[in-house]
Amino acid sequence: MPEFHAHSGDGYGRWHRLEEHLRSVATLAAGFTRAFGAENEARLAGLLHDLGKLTELFQQRLQGLTHHIDHWSIGAWAALSKYPQRAIGASLAIAGHHLGLPDRSTLANTNPAKPRRDGRTLSESDLEVLLAGLEADGVDLPQAETFVGEITNQFTKSPATDMLDCRMLFSALVDADFLDTEAHFKRGADGMKRLREPGPELDAQWALDILLRHIDQLAQHSNSAQEVNQLRSDLFAACLHSAERQTGTFTLSAPTGAGKTLSMLAFALKHAADHGLRRVVLVIPYLSIIDQTVEVLRQVFASQLSPDVNPEHYILEHHSLAGLSYTADYDDRDEAQHRRQELTQNWDAPIVVTTSVQMLHSMFSNRPGACRKLHRLASSVILFDEVQTLPNHLAAATLATLNRLCTRFGSTVVFSTATQPAFTELNKKIVTLGGVEWDPKEIAPPDLFERIRRVQVRWPEPNERLTILEIAERLSQKSNQRSLSIFNLKRHAGAVLAECRNFGSEGLYHLSTSMCPAHRTQILKRVRELLADPAEPPVRLISTQCVEAGVDLDFPVVWRAWGPLTAIAQAAGRCNRGGNLSMGSMRVFNLDKGDAFTGQRLYPDIAYKQAADTVSVVLRARGTAAMDIDNPEVFREFYSLLYGLRGDAKNDNELEKTIKTLDFPEVARLYQLINNDTVNVLVPYDGEAFAELADLARHDGLSREWINLARQHSVSIFRPVGHDPLPDFMEPIPLLGQGSGVMSDDWFICRSPEAYDPLMGLDVNKVGNLLIA
Description:
Layout: E1 5-7, E2 16-17, H1 18-32, H2 39-48, H3 56-62, E3 69-70, H4 73-82, H5 88-96, E4 121-122, H6 127-136, H7 150-153, H8 159-185, H9 204-220, H10 226-242, E5 249-253, H11 260-275, E6 279-284, H12 287-301, H13 311-314, E7 315-318, H14 335-346, E8 351-355, H15 356-363, H16 368-371, E9 380-385, H17 392-407, E10 412-417, H18 427-434, E11 441-442, H19 448-451, E12 455-458, H20 468-475, E13 482-486, H21 490-502, E14 508-511, H22 517-532, E15 539-543, E16 557-561, H23 565-572, E17 584-589, H24 606-622, H25 632-646, H26 654-659, H27 664-670, E18 678-682, H28 687-700, H29 704-710, E19 714-718, E20 730-734, E21 743-750, E22 756-757, E23 761-762, H30 764-767
Parallel strand pairs: 3-4, 5-10, 5-11, 6-8, 6-9, 7-8, 9-10, 12-17, 13-15, 13-16, 14-15, 16-17, 18-21
Antiparallel strand pairs: 1-2, 18-19, 20-21, 22-23
Helix pairs in contact: 1-2, 1-8, 2-5, 2-8, 4-5, 5-8, 8-17, 9-11, 10-11, 17-18, 20-21, 24-25
């Protein structure tokens, strides 16, 4: 009998025996699912996933003699037909391990008797021939009569839970397949496969002890008011106490500046120590907050780790800018960097810090690379910071899925924010999708907001409207020389900034996403230095919403354009943050739509406008005296009205309807946290870095390494619509290097140095009428 192979030769020309690969993947996948009791179905998926390679036709494919061979469908059909209604999860995982999880309704199309429409050739149509070959190779499948697939067996009538169950099995199979294939190609001269070393393990009690010592040191050197320090201490104690409770869903509702991040981490570590959980995952919406968080965590743990543990491997960042800074010799990737990249593939680390996009898109993805990490979430503590940023139309599906992560996979989820959304208003939809209500346990003491009133909010009179000129004039006054003003649109912030310049205002600074990340980081650093200066020099920061969630700033005066209640409260969190003033001052204002500078458009989109209009309804009903942003009841009223206005509590949206059909590719397409229809422009903020990166791109073409470096020096703009030509300032980047003629359609170089203003960033007035993302 001929010897069949799974993969071509390693560095020494030794091919990967198929029988060995199937057994190894089955063993690895079963081990990955032990945390949630799905070993049998995972092992079956591993044994059958490459069944279609047991053919002469596929062996020819390995030799490059033929192409477009489907080796996965026959394995999926084997699981579906040999174990009817008992291995549907395994069948889906096998069918998707190369191209992605399919629509469940299309599983029957893996039947080799059905005609194919994708242009690929089935490696073998006779299932019995393949099963006989498997048996001849000594690979024993479980008895069909007694087999019970643990994932399929727990299928419910709650589609979001079934989809997550399938993705977790899929994740284990994909990770096992990748790891065993990698081990084959890393064989040494001795011929032994070399599985990568596992990542560091979480010793939760050790980590908690270090964190407790760090907190004691912070308390001794705090510059905040005593009332704020006491509140932080009480919140920290409450987190340690609540950590003793059983795993499940929790909320942490506490004022900004209360020390939520470290308190939440303390909860996670003690909870993990008490319940034997495997890792902590911090999910943060914005890269600017991630930078702050990782810096704090490394201050806590880096010096305490043993010399053989790299801090970047213990506290693993997974996002587009993680740990990559500009350097001319960016091709020099040392072993530590390579190891970090390995660990991000499957989150094999004790503490993971990632973005909401990375985390949630993976949980709703169908792609092998994105889903590969999901099985690591079982028996973990997952901390969502600034959870008010979760879009309403994704909330029910997200909560139903996270509930399942807790009830089926032994994890704990914490939602942290100063402005906790009233997600229980969506429980009818959550139960339909996931079978269980959203019923989290609150961690924080109930009186925190009452105890720390640091800001006096002045609401506008019913018909009060301010022009751009009036706002600029007031910001230029001495009483506002140390102030933060926040606008909904870049156009408004830019117009106020220009008028403040005309008034001769000192200490003007600006923040928006028209500025590249490196620029924004430098501005924030400078503003913090000025605010800490006892001489109190002027510092007027005129910003868009990018400054609100999680950015650690402390101004005595804040101005905030009318917007959603969550945005107003987050803006207040940048006012008198340390509690060193008897009371901070915050002014909420309405812009005058009749002002030529303002324009008719006041908000970024319809959803934002609806949320802003809902605040007007609440204000009229309660009156200014009762419009207390420190009162959770105000937020419950806001969210109740908002969900009713949008119909979110009643009518299914397109995503929720698609989840009910278990269409994995379409759900992945519909679940979008951000508008992806953007392109990236390398900008000349740092002349030296820009010149070197531009030269590299023009000569060598686009590469993953280049993109990782360029993100710090790039700005995202909306893609030109329809047949609109590319603006003159956008130079396309070749995909394959100089002279290739093949150009990227989403990365460009800024041709015009004058287009990047040192104060405003990429200036639309200098490059034409172009919207910036």
